[in-house]
Structures are given as structure tokens and as C-alpha cells.
């Protein structure tokens, strides 16, 4: 398993996405808990969730799945709604998330996307819960370059540690300015949905991509995930539905690309040459 530095700690290069888990019947929930435990037992030490996911059901299932594991050995990221972005509501949302997750703290707490609350108020609330020890760091999600620059101008805005945006082979907008900006400002980047939407729309990728995968004797999913983490500067958050898929994700962390392969993928899905509107799922 490749490791990177993330949130000031050694981390697996992939985490566990948890959108839509905890919303099924008992059997489905049991399988989902088994997958989380499998990941923790095989070196994947970041879990990404949100109060939005299943209206808290994702967090509740994670809370059950992590029982018996050493909490200091893995990180939990959760996110709060934009309409909960005032200091008072941040505290309430966080306390509810901690209760569902059955933990005393979050490793990072993110504003899920921008809303109407002034960023200064949101940062104030996040700094307050950080001082209380309820979170170790805070960040944002679905922020573009203008958002990040605005955030940096408010009091304590420079304390933002993480920005999480969509990043995959066909959604490369972050490469133009977001990734360079975050590197310059020592802000960690999380790329969500390396396979596209949860409806697997990436199964209709251009044929040339499938040919690259076939030549490397890997699956399309393995190629997509390996490509996102190719530079060891991104924490990617794939979601997985079964153990076999999880094993495929683990294999992807060991895949390398040749210069020719990367150039071919760049021709199929070119990297951005100008600022573009970021894709969001």
C-alpha cells in the first residue's frame, strides 16, 4: 500500500467513500460494515463521510463498524451542510455526527459546499470546535480557486487544511489551478469519485481507455483509480460495494504507468489548459 502524508499524518493513498451506505436492509448494512472493517484491516486508514449521507445513516453505520479498532490508527473526515455553517449550528451538527460515529473527535470537519453564510462566520465556528478538541483540523469541499482565495482573506482562513473536489480522468479541472494553489499553500487535496457517479457512468469510457487497461492486464476501475493517485499528491476516495471490488482498489495502489501510457491517456482526455468550471457530483 502506497502511503502519503495527509492531514499531518502518514496515510494510505486511498480512503473509503461512504455515500449511500447504511440505507439498506440489515443484510446490506452487515456487508457494508464488513467492507469497512476489511479496509481498516488492510491498511486503508481514512474514512470519508458526511451528515448528508443517508441523513446520518452513513455515520451511524461507520460508528458500529469501527468498534474494536484503535481510533488513533485511522482518520475520519465528515462534512456539514452549508445551512449548518454558523458557529451555533456547526457545534450542533458536529455533536450529532460524533454521537452517530461513537467517537470523541473528528480528524477533519469540512464545509460540504458553499452556502449563504459568510465564510468568516463558518471559520469562527470551526476554530471554536477545534479549540475544544472536537476536531483536529477543518477544511472545505467543492471549492474552486476563487472560493479558496476568498477563504484565505478571512480571519483564520489560512488554517484550512483540506479541500475536497471531484477528480477523475474525465474531470481534470483541478489540475490547472487548484492543485498548484493547494501545494503552494500546503493544503491537502482529497479527490472524490475516481469512478464517476454512483451509477457507474464511467463504464461508457472511450474505447481507447479500455484498450490501455487491457494492455496492462488490469480492469477499467483499476486504471481509473491508479491514474488519480499516480503522482502521490492526492488522497482518492473511492466507494466500494463488495470485498472483491475493494481488493481491486488495493491492487490499483500498486499500479504504475509508463510515460507513453500517460501521454496516451492525456490525448484521450486532455488536461486543462485554462481555468474551467469545476465538475461537481
Automatic annotation (TrEMBL):
Alphabetized InterPro entries for the sequence: AKR (IPR020471), NAD(P)_OxRdtase_dom_sf (IPR036812), NADP_OxRdtase_dom (IPR023210)
SUPFAM superfamilies: NAD(P)-linked oxidoreductase
Domain NADP-dependent oxidoreductase: 14-269
Domain of life the protein comes from: Bacteria
Molecular functions (GO terms): oxidoreductase activity
PANTHER family: ALDEHYDE REDUCTASE (PTHR43638:SF3), OXIDOREDUCTASE, ALDO/KETO REDUCTASE FAMILY PROTEIN (PTHR43638)
Official protein name in the record: NADP-dependent oxidoreductase domain-containing protein
Natural source organism: Companilactobacillus versmoldensis DSM 14857 = KCTC 3814
Amino acid at each position: 500500500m502506497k502511503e502519503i502524508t495527509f492531514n499531518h499524518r502518514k496515510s494510505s493513498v486511498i480512503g473509503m467513500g461512504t455515500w449511500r451506505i447504511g440505507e439498506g436492509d440489515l443484510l446490506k448494512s452487515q456487508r457494508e460494515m464488513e467492507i469497512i472493517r476489511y479496509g481498516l484491516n488492510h491498511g486503508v486508514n481514512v474514512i470519508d463521510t458526511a451528515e448528508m449521507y443517508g441523513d446520518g445513516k452513513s455515520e451511524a453505520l461507520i460508528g458500529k463498524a469501527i468498534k474494536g479498532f484503535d481510533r488513533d490508527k485511522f482518520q475520519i473526515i465528515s462534512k456539514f451542510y452549508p445551512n449548518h455553517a454558523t458557529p451555533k449550528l456547526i457545534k450542533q451538527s458536529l455533536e450529532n455526527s460524533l454521537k452517530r460515529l461513537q467517537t470523541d473527535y473528528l480528524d477533519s470537519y469540512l464545509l460540504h459546499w458553499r452556502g449563504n453564510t459568510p465564510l468568516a462566520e463558518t471559520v469562527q465556528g470551526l476554530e471554536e470546535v477545534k479549540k475544544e478538541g472536537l476536531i483536529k483540523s477543518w477544511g472545505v469541499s467543492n471549492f474552486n480557486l476563487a472560493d479558496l482565495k476568498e477563504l484565505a482573506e478571512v480571519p483564520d482562513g489560512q488554517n484550512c487544511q483540506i479541500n475536497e473536489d471531484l477528480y477523475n480522468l474525465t474531470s481534470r479541472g483541478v489540475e490547472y489551478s487548484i492543485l498548484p494553489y493547494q501545494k503552494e499553500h500546503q493544503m491537502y487535496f482529497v479527490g472524490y469519485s475516481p469512478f464517476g457517479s454512483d451509477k457507474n457512468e464511467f463504464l461508457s469510457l472511450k474505447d481507447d481507455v479500455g484498450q490501455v487497461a487491457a494492455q496492462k492486464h488490469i480492469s477499467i476501475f483499476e486504471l481509473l483509480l491508479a491514474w488519480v493517485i499516480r503522482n502521490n499528491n492526492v488522497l482518492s476516495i473511492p466507494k466500494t460495494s463488495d470485498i472483491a471490488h475493494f481488493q481491486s482498489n488495493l491492487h490499483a495502489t500498486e499500479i504504475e504507468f509508463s510515460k507513453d501510457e500517460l501521454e496516451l491517456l492525456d490525448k484521450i482526455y486532455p488536461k486543462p489548459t485554462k481555468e474551467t468550471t469545476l465538475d461537481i457530483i
